Amino acid sequence: MEGLEGVWTQAGTLEACREELQEVLEEWIILGLKMGHPIPSIDGVALAFHEVP
Questions:
Q1: For residue 35, what is the enclosing H or E element?
Q2: Which end of the chain has fewer CB atoms within 10 angstroms, the N or the C?
Q3: In 10 A of CB 35, how many CB atoms?
Q4: Each residue of 1-43: pLDDT tens digit?
């Protein structure tokens, strides 16, 4: 998917692949936020965060 470079997974079953993909996406988003990278919107869903003072 465009904007999600480096996100990839494979597993023995469809359900295992879904679980793996969820974990990989969570880690990708957290790392991207820590590094200040923009997080693309997916299917019209956009993430936003605000720093707490």
A1: helix 14-35
A2: C
A3: 7
A4: 677 888 888 999 999 999 999 999 899 888 988 998 888 888 8
For position 1, what pLDDT does the model report? 63
Q: Can you give the residue ranges of every domain in the chain?
A: 9-36
- Which tokens sit at 49? 């965060």
pTM over 0.85: no
* Contact present, 4 and 40 (Cβ < 8 Å): yes
Residue 14: both structure tokens together: 């469809």
Q: How many CB atoms lie within 10 A of CB 7?
A: 13
Phi, psi of 47 (to 5 degrees): -95, 140
